[in-house]
Design a protein that fits this description.
Distance between the termini: 29 Å
Number of helices: 11
Number of domains: 1
Shape: globular
CATH architecture: Alpha-Beta Barrel
Structural class: alpha/beta
Number of strands: 16
Strand content: 15-25%
CATH superfamily: Aldolase class I
Helix content: 25-40%
Oligomer: single chain
Bound molecules: ligand FNR, Octadecane
Radius of gyration: 19 Å
Largest sheet: 8 strands, parallel, barrel
Strand order of the largest sheet: 3-4-5-10-11-12-15-16
CATH topology: TIM Barrel
Length: about 350
């Protein structure tokens, strides 16, 4: 099968053109230094992958209470900004582009990391224990007040400005995978009875406030968003979520984001209430540039772009296993198979 579709450049807007359609998906690696500072090894790791049309950084926490996993990087201290400068310099020196993924995990944070209670739309605990830290159970989060929400929006803005100061080409707001922004967008986790709950318009309000405030700060052309219409992690899907995303995506159509990115592990998953795969649902509703993900191979990525099912193909696990993924695909070389043990090392 011809893979040429992957190597067509794409213009996102008049500020950003990508040389190919292959993007590196955001991949949490838990390898930052104490103080959540990016390391030289991380700069090398991203630098090795600069042939991607665009790299999206591992999710990066916007403030202390956003943390739910050990040793993830942050973007709220001077040391963190300085650390990220090494990463962006290396990627740019190698001819690549990189967006930072801005992260707050909401109720799947833990006070173990920051000493602060987790916050969420509603005070509903996520059942279970933290991955790799099995002795820690999730805590009941504090429901955010309207004032807290204003502060949070400002913290996203500060983080986005910090990312630009660190040399990133743009930011991807992490609105996916059951984390804070996603918790507002689903009925399972949003039981608010104020202007942030109960209706599609209210439930979309926080996400849109973050999108608009970050866009105003760094430019919509350098702002992207990741979303998960069909909840599959940390949240139970509810058929009523459909109306929320119908409304939310229509609002996004009125903004000119760099791209919209699906957040999912496996896009072959079908959701009755979405009428099929998450990617089909997004393509049917979103009119801008759509980045798909979730079990894509070079063949399925090229076929999807060729058929118009999506515009960009994000590659996660295969990019961990193959730092030279783009070159291998271009040269028709075999790919190394991903294994979870590969997460132990930053190659
Ligand atoms: C992820 N994923 C992920 N998603 C995200 O939005 N932010 C993140 O920081 C991470 N971190 C992360 C770490 C690891 C180890 C894995 C395997 C996955 C999800 C990722 O971006 C992608 O959606 C999935 O991996 C599915 O794509 P692949 O791997 O099938 O190409
Ligand atoms: C199930 C969906 C959630 C999204 C995932 C992001 C978090 C993944 C955490 C991966 C952690 C990698 C840690 C590497 C440590 C090496 C130990 C062998």
């Amino acid at each position: 099968m011809a893979l040429t579709a992957l190597f067509q450049p794409i213009t996102l807007n008049d500020e950003l053109t990508l040389p190919n359609r292959i993007t590196m998906a955001p991949l949490t690696r838990c390898m930052a230094d104490p103080g959540l500072v990016p390391t030289e090894q991380m700069a090398e790791y991203y630098g090795r992958r600069a042939e991607a049309g665009l790299i999206i950084s591992e999710a990066t926490i916007i403030r202390a209470d956003a943390q739910g996993y050990p040793d993830v990087p942050g973007i709220f201290t001077t040391e963190q900004i300085e650390g990220w400068k090494k990463v962006t310099a290396k990627v740019h020196a190698n001819g690549g582009k990189i967006f930072m993924q801005l992260w707050h995990v909401g109720r799947v944070a833990h006070s173990y990391f920051s000493g602060l209670p987790p916050v969420a739309p509603s005070a509903i605990r996520h059942e279970g224990t933290l991955p790799r830290m099995r002795d820690l159970s999730y805590e009941t989060p504090k429901a955010l007040t309207s004032d807290d929400i204003q502060v949070l929006v400002n913290d996203y803005v500060t983080a986005a400005k910090n990312a630009m100061a660190a040399g990133f080409d743009g930011v991807e707001i992490h609105g996916a995978n059951g984390y804070l922004i996603d918790q507002f967008l689903h009925y399972d986790t949003n039981k608010r009875d104020d202007e942030y709950g109960q209706t599609p318009e209210n439930m979309s309000r926080f996400a849109l406030a973050v999108v608009d405030a970050v866009s105003a700060a760094v430019g919509a052309k350098r702002t992207a968003l990741r979303i998960t219409p069909g909840a599959y992690a940390h949240i139970q899907p509810d058929p009523r979520d459909r109306e929320v995303f119908d409304y939310f995506i229509e609002q996004l159509n009125q903004r000119e984001l760099a791209y919209l990115h699906l957040g999912i592990f496996d896009d072959s998953l079908e959701f009755d209430f979405l009428g099929g795969r998450s990617s089909q649902y997004i393509r049917e509703h979103y009119r801008g540039t759509f980045m798909n993900v979730g079990g894509l191979t070079p063949d399925t990525a090229a076929a999807g772009i060729e058929s118009g099912a999506f515009d960009l193909a994000a590659i996660g696990r295969l990019f961990i296993a193959n730092p030279d993924f783009v070159k291998r695909v271009q040269d028709n070389q075999p790919l190394v198979t991903y294994k979870p043990e590969m997460l132990a090392e930053l190659v």
